[in-house]
Amino acid sequence: MTHCHTTLQSLRQQGFRVTPQREMIVETLAHSETHLSAEEIHQRLQPRSKTLNLATVYRTLDLLVEQGYATRLVGKGGKFLYATRQHSRHLHLICRKCGRTYPADLKGLEPFIAHLKQTYGFQVEVEHLTFYGVCPNCLQST
Amino acid sequence: MTHCHTTLQSLRQQGFRVTPQREMIVETLAHSETHLSAEEIHQRLQPRSKTLNLATVYRTLDLLVEQGYATRLVGKGGKFLYATRQHSRHLHLICRKCGRTYPADLKGLEPFIAHLKQTYGFQVEVEHLTFYGVCPNCLQST
DNA sequence: AATATTATCGCAAAGTTTTGCAATAACAGA
DNA sequence: TCTGTTATTGCAAAACTTTGCGATAATATT
Ligand SMILES: [Mn+2]
Ligand SMILES: [Mn+2]
Ligand SMILES: [Zn+2]
Ligand SMILES: [Zn+2]
Known about the structure:
The structure is a homodimer of 142-residue chains. Chain A is built from six helices and six strands. Chain A folds into two domains: 3-86, Winged helix-like DNA-binding domain superfamily/Winged helix DNA-binding domain (Arc Repressor Mutant, subunit A); 88-140, 2-Layer Sandwich (Dna Ligase, domain 1), CATH 3.30.1490.190. Chain A is α+β, with helices and mostly antiparallel strands. In chain A, helix 1 (3-13) packs antiparallel against helix 2 (20-31), helix 2 crosses helix 4 (54-66) and helix 3 (38-45) crosses helix 4 (54-66). The first copy, chain A, has helices at residues 3-13, 20-31, 38-45, 54-66, 110-120, 136-140; strands spanning 70-74, 80-84, 90-95, 101-104, 123-124, 128-134. In chain A, a hairpin with a 5-residue loop joins strand 1 (70-74) and strand 2 (80-84). Chain A binds chain B through residues 65-66, 68, 71-72, 74, 78, 80, 91, 93, 95-97, 102, 104-105, 108-109, 111-112, 115-116, 119-125, 129, 131-136, 139, and chain B through 65-66, 68, 71-72, 74, 78, 80, 91, 93, 95-97, 102, 104-105, 108-109, 111-112, 115-116, 119-125, 129, 131-136, 139. The structure holds manganese (II) ion (2 copies) and zinc ion (ZN) (2 copies). One zinc ion binds next to helix 6 of chain A. Chain A binds a DNA duplex (30 and 30 nucleotides) through helix 4.
């Protein structure tokens, strides 16, 4: 059973309706290797559905993020990008200077996450964490 | 010497021009206890300058974030909020369900940040980190 | 103080994301 | 399978953010 099917089933169990639009959007995001913008998802689905509206894409992505099935990150230029949780656990290191995203390992962070849960009762989403900073290239070229 | 003065001086040293608009905006952000949107900053400055343009506020905030003097975060509803680094070091825990922001202590995270620097050469901005997840209230009421 | 250079500004337009509303379709129950 | 309820959709408008361009003003130089 693929990831998109489990997501759709879970949504249905939570009382949300599974529409063709949601199916297409979830599938597209789940099968993508990279982060996608709402516009990109909409374009990729154009051949399959001429009537799918961009607002529906945004609303579905909001739902997925809200329910924890996807993550929203801020790409270069302030545009939002989305990714599924399917995407194996990793850390994003995003450079403030050049905007590039570097994947990194979460190893070593777990104790701190556990501490936050104990101290504040807050359950951190660890699947797609993002840290901002300056990358090796840009550190050098300053 | 207040924080806004040092920021303006540093900007000048970096070759950026210090304009009345930039002075006002930096001052407003530095003196604010809370995170502000571009629109809020613009409104607060309306009495002082009738002609200050919202686009200038956005461009100045972009500059401040790019140069590391401010942080941009995504508020509820997808609107951007800004804060200075003045704002003492802390972690933001933002709840996916209710959108509330909880401040938390960074204590215990330093070793991991150091590890990222060693392993990837990436210098994480630790002044205003944000983790997403689910807050105690919302965990309970599920 | 006057001048030259060019970064920054205001404005208007474009691009991106959210929202209100009436029509539609998903799904629970008969 | 048919019916009723209401969550979801498409569309259009609003809200938010970025960008191009000519005019202006900040800084360096004389
Ligand atoms: Mn990723
Ligand atoms: Mn803060
Ligand atoms: Zn970089
Ligand atoms: Zn919450």
